[in-house]
Amino acid sequence: MDIVHAVARISTAVLVTVTAVAAMVVLPGVAGGQPGDRTEVPYVSTAPLAAQVAGSVVSVAVPLPPEVAPHPPECDRLSYLRWRSVDGPAESSDADRIFVAQPGIFEGAGAFESVARNTVVAAAERGMHVEFWALDRRSNCLEDHAGTSAALVTGDLDTATDYYFHGKEIDGRRFEGYAAGSDIAWLAQVGLEQTLRDQYDLLRHEFPDQKVRKEKVLCGGHSMGGFITGYFAEWDFDGDPATTDDAGYNQCSGYFALDTVIRAGAPFPSSGVPSDLPEELAAPLEAFTGAISTASPVLALPAVINPETTNMLALTGLAARLDPDGVNDIVSRMPDNTNVNWTLRTLLAKDPAMFATGSPDVRSLNATNEAVLGAILDDNSQPLGFLQTSVGFLTGGPVQDKVFPLPSTPATLESGSFGDAPKASPAVYGDPQVVYRWLDYDEVGTEASLPEESRYTSRAGEVTSIDEIARNLSEPPLDFTEWYFPMRLPSDLAQSSAPSFAAHHLYRDGVARNPVLTVQASGGITLPSTTHPNAVSITLPGYNHIDVLTAAADQNDGRGEAVSQALAAFATP
Fold first, then answer.
1. Are 418 and 406 within 8 A, CB to CB?
2. What is the Cα–Cα distance from 155 to 160, expressed in whole angstroms?
C-alpha cells in the first residue's frame, strides 16, 4: 500500500468514528410518537457523488403488534436510508419530491446507494431538490454488521473475518452466529400485511399531513418491491371504504418500477397458480402457506441462498473495497464447510464435472479481490439472472466458455433464468504465475482487454463500476444483502384474494389512479407483462437486473446514467 492510500484510509477511519460518535441527531417524534423515538445518523461514504449527496440512516420507533411472537427490542423500529442534496432543504417535507423504495428479494436498503445518489444529482441539474429513501425490512434487525463496520475503520479485512469466522471480539462483543429457531420464529407473522403497514406508518410518522404525502411522495421499488408497491396502491389501511385518506394510492403521487412492474400479484412470471382464487380455494391455500412459513420462517437453502452466504457476499465486497488488487484475500479466509464449498462451486464452477467433483478446486484460482467479486456478480459469469450486473470482464489469463449450469445456447440465453449474456470462466487454476484481474466497466475494450473478450461482451454492454458495487456491498450502514428473508412475504404476494386480506385489499384500480414509470433492463430476468394507460416504459440496453440500482453516473456512451435520468424526469412537474 502506498502512502497516499494509507493516509486516505486513516482519514476515512477517523471520519467514520467521529461521525458515528458526534453526529447522532435525535429528533422529536411526530404523528403520535414520543420525543426521542426518531434518530438520524449521517454516514461517511467514499462514493464519487458523496460531496453532493448526503446520506444518513434513519430509525423510527414503530412497535410490532402485541400478538407478534417475542422478538428483539430493536425489531420494534423501522429504518431507512435517506439521501438528499447537500444544497437542498434539511427537512424532507420541504423537498420537491421524495422517492420511497421497497427492496427486492434478499435485498437491503444499501442496494439503492448508487441510483439514489445519481437521482438526487440528476434532479438537481433540473433545478429540483429530491430525496431518495430506501426502506429496510424488519427482518434486517437480526443482522450483525459489527465486523464489517469495524473493518472499514481499521482498513483490515482480518477485523471482519476474525469476528465472523474465529470468535474474536470487537469492543467486547462476540458474533453469536446466525439466528435460527425461536430467534426467527416471529418472522412467520411478518408478511405482506405487516410490510405494507410498516411503509404506511413510516410515511405518516415522517409526513403527518396526508396532503404532503399525496403531493410529494413517489412510491416504488426494485424487483419484488414493485409487487409490494402494487399491493400498497390497492390497500385500505383503516378497513373502511368510506374513508380514502388512508388508501394506499392516496399516499403517493406516482409509482416507479426498477426492473419490475407495479402490480399486485406473484413476483414471478408464471407461478402456475392464479393470484385471485375463489374463497373456497384461497382459504386452504393461505392456511397451507402459513404452516410452511411457521415451520420455516426464513428462506434458507443448504447452499447459495442463506444467511451465511449473503453475509459472505458483503464480505467479498468489503475485500474488494479495502484492497482491490489483493490476491485471494477473501477466498482464503472463507470457512471450509459444506455450505461455503458448494456455494463456491455453484457460482464459479466452469463445467458440470468441476461442480460435481470439486476438481480443480475453486479456491486454487489465483485472482484479485476485485476479480472474485466480478466473477460472482458479472453477467458473463454469474449463472442466476436475478443476481447479475454488467460490471466488466476478466483479464490476466486465458478464459473459456462456462458451461455450468448450462451452456450458453440461444435457448438458455432467452429463458430469462440465466441472463442473456454468454458465460466465460478462467481456464487456469493453481498456477501462481497466472493471476486473474478485473477490467472495470469503462476499461472493457481497451488495450488491457483479453483477445477473447469480444466473444462475450463489449463496452456498450458494461454499465456498473466494480469499485462502486464493492462500496455498496460494504459501506452503507443498512446493507446491500439481506440475511433473513421472510418466507411469508413471497407466499402472501401470490395470494391477492387471501381471506385475511379481504378487509384491506379493496382498491383494485389503485395503480391506475397515479402515473407509473417502468424502467426495465434489457437482460437478466423475464418480467410479467402489464400495461397501464398512464404508464411510461423504458428499456435500457446493456443493463441487467442489478444494474438498474448500481450503474455508474458516467456511462461508456458519454451520457449520464439512464435510470436516474428517467427518475429525475418523472419527478419533474
1. yes
2. 10
